[in-house]
Amino acid sequence: MSSIYPSPNADQRTVVTLKSLVTYLVKARYRLLGFGVVGLLLGLGIYYFCPKYYEASFILKMPTANGVSALGNIEKHIIKPVPPSLDAKKLLLRPEEFPVAVLSACGFTDNNEDRKRLVGSLVAYEVNYATAVQVVVRIAGRDKVEKCAQAILAYETEFTNTQKDRYVSYLIAANPKAQSSEQVLVNEPAQLTAAIRISDGIVSPRFWHLLLGCFFLALLLSCFIDWLRYQWRGALSKND
Questions:
Q1: Domain containing 122: what range?
Q2: Which of 179, 189, 197, 205 is least crowded, fewest Cβ atoms below 10 Å from its Cβ?
Q3: Does some domain include residue 41?
Q4: Given the DSSP bridges, would you call strands 122-127 and 132-140 parallel, antiparallel or unpaired?
């Protein structure tokens, strides 16, 4: 049976050609096939035993209120989001401030590591010309990701409305005359633009991506092992 490797006495500077590559693939086909099958089985095992992640997303429109001049006067023709959507986005980057109820709803415990994991499970974007924030939650389990998104939504809504109420209270305190005409002030709470959307299927791991990835990694591993053997045979032939 001929070897799939070049002769140990062959010139080590031989350039790999298409012909030599095809010859290698033909001779090593059964080994490559075996490694490929093992890779597929490994991918199936990973897919069926690892957690299945789903995504939930929502868009929260920021509360709005009147602007205020440098002198503290209400500018009735200027409407702005209060707080800015950037503040709502930054809130989700501070793991130390998450309430225990939010951690529990998302399946995490009250420790530093789990708080950081929750931050890593969230992505927030400023949308609609920075008047709203879109939050995407990725958690293992479809029911759990829905509960987590609801808890995050409640957390964000409470934060933004509290900031807006403080701002409006400041406006009224700085403009005593406005107390008798509060109806002309803009004082809109945060609003959910649409129902929380849950992904229809698993977003991670992706079945075919995982299987093909494991399959080709197994093939590369087989080729790498053959390359190491070739190098080892060459080193032995030099020492003879």
A1: 53-198
A2: 179
A3: no
A4: antiparallel
